């Protein structure tokens, strides 16, 4: 998502609150050490798990093994919610990203994403690219997914503002 329409929801914001800028919202996504992914199981039950994600080219990206629950869930239903922020009630910004997840298999894009993972976590997440997946020395292949947001909500705490960013 680039240059979204930004609106403040006054129903859930303090009097006089200002909307959270798109730049401030992106900074939360770019800097989050942990992001929580919510998928839906085939029987309709939710599945929530923490993971490391990278914001690149207006989309949030994550990786998972092909047999992991989140990959199984995405095969049946691509709609996801990703959340990032702080575990405080009175400061910071929490961000919710909604949209469908889709596989990224293009080698050039995967190479850029692998570089972003290495940079963000000082080399602790080192992926190699091959056959449309990430590979490393820890486990088997990892499928890479992107979420182009259909809606992003930013919840500013302390000043209490709920902001919506949408294409």
UniProtKB/TrEMBL annotation:
Phosphoprotein keyword on record = no
Q: Which UniProt keywords apply?
A: Oxidoreductase
- SUPFAM superfamilies this protein is in? FMN-binding split barrel (SSF50475)
Q: Does the keyword Cell cycle apply?
A: no
Q: Coiled-coil segments, which residues? A: none
Q: Which residues form the Pyridoxamine 5'-phosphate oxidase N-terminal domain?
A: 23-152
Please name the Pfam families in this protein's record: PNPOx_N
PANTHER family given for it?
A: HEME OXYGENASE HI_0854-RELATED, PYRIDOXAMINE 5'-PHOSPHATE OXIDASE-RELATED FMN-BINDING
The protein in question is named General stress protein 26
Source species of the chain: Promicromonospora iranensis
């Amino acid at each position: 998502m680039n240059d979204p329409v930004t609106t403040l929801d006054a129903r859930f914001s303090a009097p006089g609150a200002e909307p959270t800028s798109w730049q401030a919202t992106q900074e939360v996504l770019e800097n989050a050490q942990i992001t929580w992914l919510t998928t839906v199981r085939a029987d309709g039950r939710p599945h929530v798990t923490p993971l490391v994600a990278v914001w690149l080219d207006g989309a949030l990206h994550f990786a998972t093994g092909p047999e992991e629950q989140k990959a199984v869930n995405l095969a049946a239903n691509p709609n996801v919610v990703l959340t990032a922020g702080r575990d405080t009630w009175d400061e910071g910004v929490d961000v919710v990203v909604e949209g469908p997840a889709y596989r990224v298999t293009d080698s050039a894009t995967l190479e850029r994403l692998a570089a972003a993972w290495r940079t963000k976590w000082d080399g602790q997440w080192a992926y190699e690219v091959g056959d449309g997946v990430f590979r490393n020395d820890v486990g088997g292949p990892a499928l890479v997914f992107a979420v182009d947001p259909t809606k992003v909500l930013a919840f500013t705490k302390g000043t209490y503002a709920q902001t919506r960013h949408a294409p």
